[in-house]
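Sequence in, structure out. Go.
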Amino acid sequence: MRLQAVSSGEPFCLGMEKIKVAELAQDLDFLQDYRINGLKSLPDAQARWTLHLHDWFGHLKAAYVGTDTIKQLRTTSRNDRKRKQVMQR
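Output:
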């Protein structure tokens, strides 16, 4: 049953389809590695999550975030940047 779910792209754990990306980020403390290793880029990584990625991914169900979602983010970001450049002229 799990192999069928994985091969079809469906969540295979009970409750997995309810977990949102923001909950995973909070529970996993995904920036912990930055703190442990004293990386100077920690403030930048925090800002990217807070200002950009959280708004885009935070509300999404983690089980359904995949390559297509990432590609859509890139396309949208590029289009937004182009729009801002045109408006500044």
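Check: Residues 2-88 form one domain. Residues 67-88 form the longest helix (22 residues).
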